[in-house]
Structures are given as C-alpha cells and as structure tokens.
Amino acid sequence: MRPILALFGKSPFGPLAEHTERAHQTVQLLRPLFEAFLDGDWAKTDEIYQRISKLEHKADVLKNEIRDHLPKSLFLPVDRGDVLLFLKEQDGIADRAEDVAVLLNMRQTPAPSGMRSGILEFVDYIIATSAAWYASSRDLTTLQEASFTGPEVDKMMDRVREISDMEWEADKKQAALSRGLFEHEEELGAVSIFFWMNIFRVLGAVANHVENTADLLRLMLARR
Fold it and tell me: Contact 23/109 with Cβ under 8 angstroms?
C-alpha cells in the first residue's frame, strides 16, 4: 500500500475513494457467500467469511489512517467534521457486509424452498447499489478539483438521487422476502424464520449505509 501521506497529496478525497473501493470489495463477496450458504456448503461459507473479514479489516486500517492523518485545518470547500462523518458512514458499508458474513457463518440454517432465486436477486441488488456508489466515488477528486461547483456537481447530485431510489427498491425487496418467509414457517420453524429475517435486515443495512454515504456527500455539495 502506498504511504498515506502520498495518498493524500493536497486532498483527502483520494484516500476516501480508495476506502470506497475496499468497502465495495467486501460487498462483492456477498454473492458467492450466499451461493455457498444456500447450497449448504458450510466449509465454503466459512472460507468466504474469512475473506470478507480480512477485507473489512483492510478498510478499517485505511479508515484509521485517514482519521489519524487528516489535517486539523483543511484548505478545502468542505468541513473536516463532514469528511469524518462521511468516512464513518462509508465504513459502515464494509461493517454491515461483514455482519452478514458473521450471521451466515454462525448457524447452519436451511434455506426456504423456492426462495433461492429471490434471495440471490436481493443480494445482487445490494451489490449493484454498492457498485453505483463506488462508480460515483471515483469522481470525488474531480469534484474537489472543480471546487465543488459547476456541472460536475449536477452530475453527482443526479447519481445520489439514483442511489437513493435504489435503496428504496432494496427496502421493498427486503419487505417482500420477509413476508414470504412466513409461508415456510412450518417447514423452517420459528428460529430459522427469525434468523433469515435478521439476515435480510442486516443485508438491507448495507444499502442503507450506501445511501447515507451518498446523502452526506449531497449535504456537503448543498452547503456550497
């Protein structure tokens, strides 16, 4: 990894964009994680959990380095406190992805029959929401170079709105899957129903943190 000071240069937005990439890497592994879990491949589930945990740790390391090296006074068009809050919320993306992995590695829980495709569709949508933010974050340095003004701001605002819409869709998918679980109550039992609902809730929280991160950027832009 490059020295953190070299990453900063004149702005924290380079390191922030790199942190976004690390957070998204944890989310990308959710698809193979769920495939292994739904297949009842507990060894593979554990293996992917370990990979997610290591990636989340790398995101944490970079988060702490950014915090430790962020200057007390920034000659930037944004507030230092806003940058730290943004970083904390973005780190929540990786945290929740790891939480999902912890849950799936905790208990060998049977999958509800007929719901595999719906579950994987939900997982893919969460990953797509994270990917939308990751793609947007790559323009953070461009925004800073433009002093957070001009057409680049309008483009980013549009992307933030799209991410908000995606999170809303994710909420609807989560609610539909949770309702569908009760059709399998006799098949699964109350404990497994509760466990799956918790999995869906934490998985949905990944998208919540994505939206919150994008919304914090929107607030920074709106203050300009």
Answer: no
pLDDT in tens, 26-47: 999 999 999 999 999 999 999 9
The total number of structural domains in the chain stands at 1
| Element holding 197 (H helix, E strand) | helix 190-222
**What is the spatial distance between Cα 74 and Cα 201, in angstroms, rounded to a whole number?**
37
Count other C-beta atoms under 10 Å from residue 199's C-beta.
20
Residue with tokens 């832009």: 221
Write the CB contacts of 165 (distance below 8 Å, at least 6 apart in sequence).
Answer: none
DSSP codes, 74-122: --SSS-HHHHHHHHHHHHHHHHHHHHHHHHHHH--PPPPTT-HHHHHHH
What is the domain range of residue 16? 4-222
Distance, CA of 62 to CA of 2 (rounded, Å): 11
CATH number at residue 124: 1.20.58.220
pTM over 0.85: yes
Single-letter code of the amino acid located at 63: K
pLDDT, tens digit (0-9, with 9 covering 90-100), for 123-145: 999 999 999 999 988 877 777 66
